[in-house]
Each structure stands twice: as structure tokens, then as C-alpha cells.
Amino acid sequence: MTTAVRADEGAVVLTTRPGRWLDGYDPEDTAFWRAGGRDIARRNLGWSIFTEFLGFVVWQLWSIVVVLLPAAGFTFTDTQSFWLISLPSLVGATLRFPYSFMVARFGGRNWTIVSAALLLVPAVLLGVVVANPHTPFGVMLTVAGLAGLGGGNFASSMANITHFFPQREKGWALGLNAAGGNVGTAVAQFLVPIVVTLGAGSMMRVSWAGWIWVPFILLAMWGAWRRMDNLTSAKSDLAGSAATLREPHLWLLALLYVGTFGSFIGFASVFPKLIADQFPAFSALHVGGAAVSLAFLGALVGSLSRPYGGRLADRLGGARVAAGAFGVMAAGALTVVATLPLHSFALFLGCFLVLFAATGIGNGATYRMIPHVFSARGEVTAAADATVARKAAAALGLISAIGAYGGFVIPQILSASHAATGAYTAAFLGFAAAYVVLLVVTVAVYAVPRRALALRRI
What we know:
- The chain is mainly alpha-helical.
- Helix content is 73%, strand content 4%.
- α14 packs antiparallel against α18.
- The longest helix is centred in the last third of the chain and has 37 residues, at 345-381.
């Protein structure tokens, strides 16, 4: 047992126990934070971002693998392809609920090692099953579902990092953590087509889409083992979560988050297939001996725009920014419908990039609205600050999990539209209508002062 005592009077006593457990870690203590707490927090944040990044990579691998399967000899129907794309999101969203409590049960370092190790299962199995074009669809669907293990990582990673940083820096740290994960989708969609075609000649090495991530996953496990820490102060709040479930605004904010983050992850997962269906000549652009897909641009734009949504929300108000994002998303969906008959890939790509940017901005804005809404509710109910903080923290985890279900819903709606009409027009008209409804709800409930929210504009 090693004990580190800060020289400052009344400073934190930090005790390190076997297994890299830290007792007495208090980021709110300014002296401790400056003397070494900041370094501990940043070290854990770095490896957390890397592991969560790989989680998003694995989670979204099937979004790009599906469009490569026909060239590898697979003959799945459109409906089957959409299931392979959407099932990882369904599983990942569901796993976010138990994952959010694992850090308190096992320790942040320990669970990061375990959650990273679990990524080996879908990555390795993907490499195995896609090597044989006679693999039954049921087996393929099961392996695709296991990719949802990567989607659960977000919840445990965010739950872990929030305990390392003081309140004044949580937004910055959690924003970096979230953005680092989201970028994993873009990286997977960019690198996989290059890796499976580079130097392959007439062969398509789709199995490499899974195998190439194994060394990185092993590195993440090693980094978590050697460089991360467990905090005894990281406790789960089941009572806070139960109380939050009874708050009507939890469900309303979750609906808004389905519209923003759900749209981001849903469109990101299906964008490669939409390009392949509507503009097959642009599905893979050949550069030298490699194929490059432009589908990654959507996820990249959506990921990079998210922090700006949070920044604009701080300046203008979350409800105003979210409402504006929903308006742009509705316009973007309608523009996709209007421009598809023109058969212009440039217009198609441009419309979608605007749509992705709006989902990212709306994503950041709605996430920033959550603590403000619960703070306003605390004023109305005269709840103690600690109670408000507990409910807000629980709401962030629950809403992030519910929002991820959009990654399942959007591909399934597109699949149903295509199966019924042979086109995606009906789906995009439905999306536009839903965004208009969400815009109206956002303005009516959160942009207009209401007594239920202490007459605040959120």
C-alpha cells in the first residue's frame, strides 16, 4: 500500500492500493488537482478515449462491411442487409444500460480492460465469417449483433471519466471523450475499404475488416492495465436513476436525443449503403490499388460539429440551437427527396453533409440542455443541489442509451420504405415530418418560459 500526502495544509491524502485502486481521490480539491490530480485525470482520459474510439469502430464495422459483401460472393437481400446494419445499434443501445453501472461495480480501469477485451469477440468473428460466402445469414446476423458490445462502451467510459474531473472541467473532458468515440465511425468507414482492397488485385479481403483492429484492441487492453486507475469514490446511483425515471422531462429529452444523436448514428451506419444503392459508381473510388468510400465524410462531419453545438448552446441557449438544428434537418431530408431525381451525386452528398452537420450540432445542444432542465426542475420542486446533481447525472446516462436506439430505427424505416415502394422517398418524408414535430416540441416546452421550468429559457 502506497500513501501520497500533499504538502499543502489540509490537502488530500491519496492512497494507492494493489490493483491500482485510489482512495481519497478528490478533483474538487484545488491543491490536489494542481499537484497531481490533473495528471492522473488526463492519463485516464487519454486511454479512455482510445478504448471508446475502438468501441465505435467495432460497433459500426458492419455499416461498411455490408456494402463489400456482394463483391465477396454474398447474396443477401436488401432487408437482410439492413438487419446486418441496424442490429449492432439495437444491441449497443441496450447494453448501455448495464454498462453504465459496471464502473462502480468493478472499477473504471478493470472494466475498461474487460470491455476492450470483449471487442475482440466481434472483431475476430467478423474476420472468420466473412471469409466464407456460404456462411448462413443467421450466423452473420449473430456476429453483427455482437458488434453491439462496442456500443455499450460509451456508457461505461463516460461514467468512468466523469469521476476524474472537477465540475468546472467535466464538460470539456466528457466532450473530448464523446467526440473521440464518434470519430471511430468515420475512421472505420474510411480505412476498411482501403485495407480490404489495397494490393488485393481481383480478390476482396473482407476478413481484414475485422482482423486489422485486433492489435489496436490489445494495445488498449495493455494501456488500461498499465496506465489507468480505479477510484473507490466512483459509486453507482441506482436510487438517482430510479427517481429520474419518474421525471417526465427525462422522456421528452430522450425523444429529442433520439432525433439528434439517433439520427447521427442511424444515418452514419446506413450512409454507405445509400450511396451504393443510389450511386453505385461512387460507392468506391479507386485511388491507385485501393478503393476509397466517401461515406466516411458524413460521420466525420457529424462528429466534428458536435462540440460546436455545445458551444452555441452555451451562448444562445440549448433549446434555440436544438430547434434550429431540427429545422435544418427537416430541410435537409426534404432536399434529399427533391434532388434524388436529378441523379447528381454532388447534390446528394452535399445535402447529407448538411444533414450530418445539423445532427452533430443538435446532438451537442440537446446534451447540454439536460443539466439545465434538471436544474430548473430543482428550483421548482425546491430540491437540494445534491439531489438535482444526482438526477442530472443519471439522466445523462439514461438519455444517451435511449438515444442510441435511433441507430436501429432509422435503417429499419429506410428498409421498410424500400421494400414497400422500391424507393427511400417515403422514409425521408417521414423523417422530415418527425423533425418538424421535434422542432415544435423544443420551442413550445423549452424555448418559451414555463412555470414548470422556473420561467427559464433552456
